[in-house]
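Input (structure):
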């Protein structure tokens, strides 16, 4: 690993036997500070432990690894490394878009996984062989930047509101569609306007359309 500091890790997988096996295989320099077997438990444990790295299974009860990433977006300093039996392109691309710094399959060896944890903790992106190609192809195929600082500061709920505004929905219609109050819609809109330094919903609509959020 590239740093001597002990890396604190939370292990998220719905199979207890697998978690036990991973802990046995990891080398020195890694400390498991928490475990979880579903989305709700993972969110709670990660918020409490604030690890350097989260080893995150893609398929979990309660919405999967993507749901964990969505619910924790911007709220913890932890970096996320997907560890999955799946090598399907849609799984890889989905969690990377969600914020994971890497993706390795469960065929990885203990020493390789220990090294991957250290590299992700230090800011590198780590992928099993050939999986990196999926990510490069996916981001090369779109005009939208892989990293959009303005978009990254908007929460998922604010994006939901923004998408409906861009489609011409009135505040009452948005409230009904998202099962929230009109007042909450107004709060979300005000928050987005402030974050993006825009003046009105027409500018918001143009901004959303430019990023294909509509």
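Output (sequence):
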């Amino acid at each position: 690993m590239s740093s001597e500091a002990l890396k604190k890790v939370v292990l998220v997988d719905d199979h207890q036997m697998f978690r036990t096996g991973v802990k046995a295989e990891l080398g020195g320099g890694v400390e498991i500070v928490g475990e979880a077997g579903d989305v709700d438990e993972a969110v709670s444990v990660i918020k409490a432990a604030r690890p350097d790295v989260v080893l995150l299974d893609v398929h979990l009860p309660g919405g999967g690894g993507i749901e964990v990433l969505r619910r924790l977006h911007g709220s913890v300093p932890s970096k996320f490394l997907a560890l999955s039996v799946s090598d399907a392109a849609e799984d890889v691309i989905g969690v990377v878009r969600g914020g994971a710094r890497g993706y390795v399959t469960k065929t990885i060896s203990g020493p390789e996984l220990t090294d991957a944890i250290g590299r992700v903790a230090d800011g590198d992106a780590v992928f099993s062989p050939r999986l990196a190609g999926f990510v490069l192809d996916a981001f090369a195929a779109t005009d939208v930047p892989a990293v959009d600082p303005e978009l990254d500061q908007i929460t998922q709920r604010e994006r939901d509101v923004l998408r409906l505004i861009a489609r011409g929905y009135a505040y009452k219609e948005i409230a009904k569609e998202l099962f929230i109050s009109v007042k909450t819609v107004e709060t979300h809109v005000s928050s987005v306007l402030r974050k993006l330094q825009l003046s009105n919903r027409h500018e918001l609509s143009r901004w959303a359309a430019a990023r294909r959020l509509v």
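Notes: The domain at 149-210 is CATH 1.10.10.10 (Arc Repressor Mutant, subunit A). The chain has a mean pLDDT of 86.
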